[in-house]
Specification:
This protein has nine helices and nine strands. The protein has helices at about 5-25, 30-45, 65-70, 90-95, 135-145, 165-175, 200-205, 230-240, 245-260, and strands at about 55, 75-80, 105, 120-125, 145-155, 210-220, 220-225, 270, 275-280. The strands form two sheets. The protein has a seven-stranded mixed beta sheet with strand order 3-2-1-4-5-9-6. Helix 1 packs across helix 8 (about 230-240) and helix 5 packs across helix 7 (about 200-205).
Length: about 290
């Protein structure tokens, strides 16, 4: 992909997330448990400890930047970075409410970070790299800003068919709204662009990172059938597309999603499957 194509794709991603920002902010507190579940393996893979300088890319509504800021302590610092300033409004508010003074927010593209070479001990990115039009170049930029021996860690969705939430969403959306590839405001393809085994390894290796490792992480939660467990993710996925849409379309889509989950019910619970992948790599020391 040439420079002009990358720029066009980046602007499309920026516009998409600008439209999603308020939906993510509004629902961020509701998905705190899910966020913590995803944070833990990423933070472990990055080997984050007290006192480090950490760049968090695609900070969004605030995680894992806020959790990492607490972990690195007063002697460390987290630079929370996102392409879209609208996505970080809630993160700034939450950081202030938690009294976090070691957290700096910046609007920046992961392909052109506003940092000097060798500025960070760690670079982390949760659910962001798959939206980048040039993942290997993003890994190369992470390599540039890492200190020699520093480590980058990325978490992405695995194949869409292996996460129940999105399987149900796709089936419902296609039944109510029609083919997804005709809907500009709903993208249920790009989030899974690095989901295949080996895709992360290729991006990180091509970006010049060494000691690259990729692994799958799976969760199998069983959630109470009566709980509104899917509604936060529904708003974050479909909110932009439904802004200003007729109420009957909104209701029809929600009913289709609810019916999809109900079909999976086992007693009072609904079993879910979640598949994410973590890729790590280091900046060479020589």
């Amino acid at each position: 992909m040439d420079a002009d194509a990358i720029k066009r794709e980046t602007e499309l991603v920026r516009a998409d997330w600008a439209g999603r920002g308020r939906h993510w902010d509004r629902r961020a507190d509701e998905i705190a448990e899910q966020a913590a579940r995803m944070n833990a393996p990423l933070i472990e893979a990055a080997d984050i400890v007290q006192g480090q300088q950490v760049c968090d890319i695609a900070t969004g509504a605030g995680e894992p930047a806020l959790s990492v800021a607490s972990l690195v302590g007063a002697e460390g610092r987290v630079f929370a970075t996102d392409l879209c300033p609208e996505m970080m409004l809630g993160a700034r508010r939450r950081a202030a409410a938690q009294g976090l003074r070691n957290l700096t927010f910046r609007t920046a593209d992961m392909l052109a970070l506003p940092d000097a070479d060798a500025a960070f001990d760690r670079v982390i990115c949760r659910f962001g790299l798959m939206f980048c039009p040039a993942p290997a170049r993003a890994a190369a930029e992470a390599r540039r800003v890492l200190k020699p021996g520093g480590r980058a860690a990325y978490l992405v969705w695995g194949p869409r068919a292996e996460t129940t939430m999105f399987v149900v969403f796709v089936t419902a959306a296609e039944a109510v709204l029609g083919p997804l590839d005709t809907l500009d405001d709903i993208d249920l393809a790009r989030p899974f662009s690095l989901g295949a085994a080996g895709a992360l390894t290729s991006a990180l290796t091509d970006g010049g990172l060494t000691d690259v490792d990729e692994r799958e992480v799976r969760f199998a939660p069983r959630v109470p059938a009566a709980a509104p467990f899917w509604q936060a993710q529904f708003d974050m996925t479909f909110g932009r597309a439904l802004d200003g849409a007729p109420e009957e379309k909104n209701r029809a889509l929600k009913d289709a999603v609810a019916s999809g989950f109900e079909s999976l019910r086992e007693g009072d619970e609904i079993p879910l499957a979640v598949h994410v992948r973590i890729g790590t790599g280091a900046k060479p020391t020589d």
